[in-house]
Amino acid sequence: MDIDQTKIPQATAKRLPLYYRFLEGLQASGKHRVSSSELSEAVKVDSATIRRDFSYFGALGKKGYGYNVNYLLSFFRKTLDQDELTKVTLVGVGNLGTAFLNYNFSKSNNTRIEMAFDVDDSKVGKEIGDVPIYHLNDFKEMITESNVEVVILTVPSHVAQSIADDLVEAGIKGILNFTPARLSVPDDVRVHHIDLSVELQSLIYFLKHYPL
Ligand code: ATP
């Protein structure tokens, strides 16, 4: 089935990786079908939303059968470009950056950090988790050569904006920003911001004020 991906709402698109990861686990354990309530329980999205999400790509589900896991996975692979390896680079090999290099999305077969950059001479030239670390001065040249468009940014917040400017100038199209800084970028560049301390504080606030 050919699906016009521009018609999938952004909120739905954001949930796809969540569904994908769970379904992959199901497939690995030999399961061929799943009900929306089972999915709902696992990914913590209500089943009406799941049904609506899935209806955008023609997976309607059958009463008493549920959804076909293989069909869903093949759709997600196409939509999320899971068949295509997306090369990612990381800037800022501090504590958080180092953790990412060691982790390196080993459970995903489509994203991999290929190289990392820092300005600290004691880190440049080394490897962490098989990922080579280069000097930030070489960034533009290196990423042009290797066609990288996505950067994970784990630098101190006071240098984040100026580094982001350089990344954009070098042709980067997506930044996963782990610094507390709010970045200004041109309209054709996408920034997703993950501030771990804000996320944690928000969880604690909700636990306190909106107990389940
Ligand atoms: P983290 O914030 O990940 O816990 P940390 O506390 O170990 O890290 P930070 O001071 O936040 O260290 O710096 C993170 C990394 O960013 C360090 O490796 C540092 O060398 C690097 N860094 C600092 N300034 C720049 C810069 N201008 N360009 C690239 N990397 C930089």
Automatic annotation (TrEMBL):
Glycosyltransferase keyword on record: no
Coiled-coil residue spans: none
InterPro entries: CoA-bd, NAD(P)-bd_dom_sf, Rex_bacilli-type, Rex_DNA-bd_C_dom, Tscrpt_rep_Rex, WH-like_DNA-bd_sf, WH_DNA-bd_sf
Signal peptide annotation: none
Gene Ontology biological process terms in this record: negative regulation of DNA-templated transcription; response to redox state
Swiss-Prot/TrEMBL keywords: Cytoplasm, DNA-binding, NAD, Repressor, Transcription, Transcription regulation
Similarity annotation: Belongs to the transcriptional regulatory Rex family.
Matching PANTHER family: REDOX-SENSING TRANSCRIPTIONAL REPRESSOR REX, REDOX-SENSING TRANSCRIPTIONAL REPRESSOR REX 1
Name of this protein: Redox-sensing transcriptional repressor Rex
Organism annotation: Salipaludibacillus keqinensis
Designated gene of the protein: rex
